[in-house]
Amino acid sequence: MTEQTPTKVDMEKIVSLCQRRGFIFPSSEIYGGLSSCWDYGPLGVELKRNIKEAWWRAVVQERDDMIGLDASILMNPKVWEASGHVKGFSDPLVECKNCHLRWRVDELAGDDCPSCGGELTEPRLFNLMFKTFMGPIEDNASIVYLRPETAQGIFVNFQNVLNTTRKKLPFGIAQMGKAFRNEITTGNFIFRSREFEQMEIEYFVKPGSDKEWFDYWLEERFNWYTKLGIKKENLKLRPHTKEELAHYARECADIEYLFPMGWAELEGIANRTDFDLRQHANSSAKSLEYFDDETKEHFIPYVIEPSAGVDRSVLAFLCDAYDEEPDEEGIRVLLHLHPTLAPIKVAVLPLSRREKLVAAAKQIYADLRQCWMVQYDDAQSIGRRYRRQDEIGTPFCVTIDFQSLEDEQVTIRERDTMNQIRVPIKELKTTLAAKLSGEELFVLPPGGKIWKAERV
Ligand code: GAP
Question: What is the CB < 6 Å shell around ligand 1?
């Protein structure tokens, strides 16, 4: 993509753009919202879908060693006992004796309540799983949990997948879906919420080869973000210290992004050893062993888990793409989103609302939307319309003018460079397809900026 100088954007600008243009709204806003719950609007849902599709394509579709799964959110509660979540998935909490606000101990800077300065209680453990009841009776026997991670759905299906696909180690299972955590402190927009989506891989390997695969997935997942346009200098790997490691992990590292509030976790990669499969095998009394045809050995595989947040990815891609450029009208706000992620790929803009132009433009619009998400816009000046598309990250605008009626050609205008080329209408679809997939470059003036979408 175009060389951009790294911009450290304010969160308020991102939140404002998201609400103004229909990316993300507060949940149930007309009732005053619900703390840390968010709704994805018409553009947000496209961006999110594109991120998930790019992930699925990279980790399932284009690989021999991966398959997908979609487990249910509600699971037998024994799953969460075996996984350690009922006992151990908790944060130490203190409560202010004066204002009764609760705080996470690891996020406190001093000894007093950050809100009113009041005295704090001793820390108590607070379980982050949401509980509900299955069926009509609300007693202990009918308690079920909303899953706090998608991972366990994969572990409990390990044997089913193995039996039905006959995969050989190493292989992985990928799943994306909703997860719920009753987080004590939320905030920073969609960074930490109580309902969110994860994209998780459980990659099963032979014990002894786990370190090698851990390193492989660190690199693989880091590169996925940069290929989709995130600037390298805004990403870093942070290995966990021994004290930080989760109860199941032997080694863990976070891919961190430089969010507006500072460096924070975007994705975690963990070596979970055989902890989960062993726990489930013991609790269910079912064998979760793998039989190695070559060595004739039975063993429980080790697991490398790259676990990413969809909502944190949405936020990182938006922050990284946000840019402001001075222009004759003041400031051009634009999102340099990778074409693969852009919610709208092409905007069709007739120069005026004259009948003949509109008919030709509508024909092109109908044709292009067979392939991509396309917007039609004929309101206000062409300059305003270009700006509106820049602000939502649309890579290409197609303009139909009076000349088009004569020579059957239209103009393609590119978002980042604002370069324009003229192409025959009958070649429009193939030209756009090549540009959107990164196979074709614009012909640029000498010294012009190079724009190339890397194919992912
Ligand atoms: N299965 C491992 C696991 O769930 P995690 O580090 O707790 O590990 C993985 O979560 C990813 O899920 C995080 O890197 C983050 O992107 C996302 N995530 C976790 N809690 C979240 C929350 N409350 N809001 C939004 N995303 C969250």
Answer: 149, 151, 181, 183, 192-193, 196, 198, 200, 265-268, 305, 307-309, 311-312
Task: Identify the residue with better confidence: 393 or 111.
Answer: 393
Contact 452, 438 (CB under 8 A): yes
User: Structure pTM?
Assistant: 0.91
User: Which amino acid is it at 241?
Assistant: T
- DSSP per-residue codes, 55-122: HHIIIIIT-SSEEE----SB--HHHHHHHTHHHH-EEEEEEBTTT--EEEGGG-SSSS-TTT---BPP
Summarised one tens digit per residue, pLDDT across range 370-422 is 999 999 999 999 999 999 999 999 999 999 999 999 999 999 999 999 999 99
- Find the 13 Cα to ligand 1 centroid distance in Å: 24
Q: Which atom of ligand 1 is nearest to the CA of 151?
A: 1
Q: Which amino acid is at 67?
A: I
Candidate from 196, 273, 305 with most ligand 1 atoms within 8 A of CB, to mutate:
196
User: 307: Cβ–Cβ under 8 A, 6 or more apart, which residues?
Assistant: 149, 151, 198, 199, 200, 201, 267, 268, 269, 270
> In the predicted model, what is the mean pLDDT of the chain?
92
**Separation of 201 CA from ligand 1 center, angstroms?**
13
Instruction: Report how far residue 150's alpha carbon sits from residue 97's, in angstroms, rounded to the nearest whole number.
Output: 36
Cα Dmax for the chain: 79
How far is the centre of ligand 1, averaged over its atoms, from the C-alpha of 149 (Å)? Answer: 8
Consecutive H or E run containing 414: strand 409-414
Residue keyed to tokens 């994860």: 198
CA nearest ligand 1 atom 2, residue? 307
Single-letter residue type at 134: M
pLDDT digits (tens, 9 = 90+) for 348-361: 999 999 999 999 99
Q: How far apart are CA 348 and CA 385, in angstroms?
A: 10
Minimum-distance ligand 1 atom for the alpha carbon of 190: 25
Query: Distance between CA atoms of 23 and 40, rounded to whole angstroms?
Result: 6
Count H helices, E strands: the chain? 13, 23
Indicate which residue's Cα is closest to atom 17 of ligand 1: 309
How far apart are the C-alpha atoms of 373 and 390, rounded to whole Å?
A: 15
Contact, 40 vs 21, CB < 8 A? no
